[in-house]
Amino acid sequence: MNAPRLGFIGAGRLGSALALACVRAGLAVPAVASARAASAAQMAERLPGCAAVAAQQVVDRCDLVFVTTPDAAIAPTVAALQWRPGVAVVHCSGATEVAALQPAQRAGAATGGFHPMQTFADAEAAARSLAGCTITVEAEDAALDALLVALCERLGCAVNRLPPGMRARYHAAAGYASQFVNALLAEAARVWAGWGASEADTVRAMLPLVRGTLAAIESGGIAQGMPGPVSRGDVGTVAKHVQALATLDAATLQSYRLLCDRTVDLALARGSLDAERAAQLRALLAPAA
Ligand SMILES: NC(=O)c1ccc[n+]([C@@H]2O[C@H](COP(=O)([O-])OP(=O)(O)OC[C@H]3O[C@@H](n4cnc5c(N)ncnc54)[C@H](OP(=O)(O)O)[C@@H]3O)[C@@H](O)[C@H]2O)c1
């Protein structure tokens, strides 16, 4: 398939962004569908040479179909359509097994997973942020696998492999680099709110810090790139933190203790903490302390 015709079913955040990025990479997206005709029409408008059609027509007119509905709608959407040998269908869900596409496979279609490890909100911004991302590709069929890998290269993305049966675990892990970052900054904002700082104040002050940490991880790795008092074996500073947070709510102190305890492992791996000070820190961070 030198010039595959790509189709999309599901005109949401990911579908719109991925289709736009594909078109900008010189690929043809002749047909899109969605639950609501208006969504499909809006998506098609942004894609030169694309028509908003019924889902079955996407299958009939395209070589590779992306099912970009919400996760729960993937299996019923695929089961309701007529598939044929020679066509391929993939979903873009991190947590859903490729087996959700079995009805298409039984009809002779090749099936796979194509999960971009990126957050998609606004289609335009998301399409621009796709290059440089990693896309997890999973396909038993060798021709489809090669096509998906070529597509990643065309989009400027790196390829990650995943064996079958691992998607829920893999997707749970991705949360540490996405929504858990929000949860961590929410913890910081809650503490800052104690002296009247706004969320905007916290975000403005913390974002450069987050970026600095990410840069250190990029150059040194997770353990070597870790900043902070635990990495320096500074037991006294951690004791001050625990004491200060103990005057706030129990949940804030609990999450600080848990996360700080994880950093002890990293500092040991980094070689910047000896066993004695690690034991002191662990005692300080234990819930009974
Ligand atoms: N957003 C992300 O950051 C992200 C990142 C990686 C992977 N993903 C994966 O990408 C997929 C889509 O997620 P999303 O965030 O783009 O969801 P979304 O913004 O909610 O969009 C899903 C779209 O699917 C359409 N839809 C719903 N049921 C349908 C059906 N039965 N048939 C056809 N279209 C249907 C809806 O269209 P209408 O507007 O017509 O109602 C909606 O616009 C999911 O599998 C998700 O796990 C998302």
Descriptive report:
The structure is a single chain. This protein has 289 residues and is of the alpha/beta class. The protein has 2 domains: 5-163, Rossmann fold (3-Layer(aba) Sandwich), CATH 3.40.50; 176-285. Helix content is 52%, strand content 13%. It is built from 13 helices and 8 strands. It has helices spanning 13-24, 37-45, 55-61, 71-79, 102-106, 123-128, 142-154, 167-174, 179-193, 199-220, 235-246, 250-270, 275-285, and strands at residues 5-9, 28-33, 51-52, 64-67, 88-91, 110-116, 134-139, 158-161. Strands 3-2-1-4-5-6-7-8 form an 8-stranded mixed β-sheet, with helices on both faces. Helix 2 links the parallel strand 2 (28-33) and strand 3. Helix 9 (179-193) crosses helix 10, helix 11 (235-246) runs parallel beside helix 13 (275-285) and helix 12 runs antiparallel to helix 13 (275-285). The longest helix is centred in the C-terminal third of the chain and has 22 residues, at 199-220. The mean pLDDT is 96. Residues 9-15, 34-36, 39, 68-71, 73, 77, 91-94, 115-116, 119-120 line the site of NADP nicotinamide-adenine-dinucleotide phosphate (NAP).
